[in-house]
Amino acid sequence: MGLTKPKPYLSVAEYLAGERESPVRYEYVLGQVYAMAGASDRHNRIAGNLYTRFSLHLDGKRCEAFISDMKVRVAEDVFYYPDVVVACDPPGGDAYYRSQPVVIVEVLSPTTERIDRNEKLAAYRRVPTLREYVLLSQDGLAAEFHHRTVEGEWTSVRLDQPEEELPFASIGLTLTLADVYRNVRFPEIDAPATN
Q1: Is the pTM of this model over 0.70?
Q2: Going from the N-terminus, what domains does the chain have, and what CATH number goes with each?
């Protein structure tokens, strides 16, 4: 029986320095790095729709929207790359990550769904500034909307109708699922054969 070789431990400083030089993006969790995979066209369209809406809404305001290449520091030794993030960090901070997110969105894929629903959900809920965390299916019209109440408790609701709304109270913007999934094409299921 062979033993697996332990992965080398990287300090936060080593990780951040390496990320500036690397052509590949890596998430960082407790001294270990994990390469990020590419995304489908639906994944990109969904994330792009949200980023565009957030960015236009926030134009000229303190908070900023970012898409996929901006890291979020969720703990002293944990950095993730959300698909879309709205952060309200004060000016003059690090140019390569944000630490005060108010909205985080992850578009689910088969390779990331388990981590997004479990590990990241638990980590993100511990970020004091975060108000909304949204999980979006790339395979159909479906969202899980997690929201921190005024009392600090987390609630969640599932949405699957085009007219249902995602109320991003932290930034004063409400979007429908139709807005989020604009121009996203899903494969036909059980489509009749044509001759």
Answers
A1: yes
A2: 39-180 (3.90.1570.10)
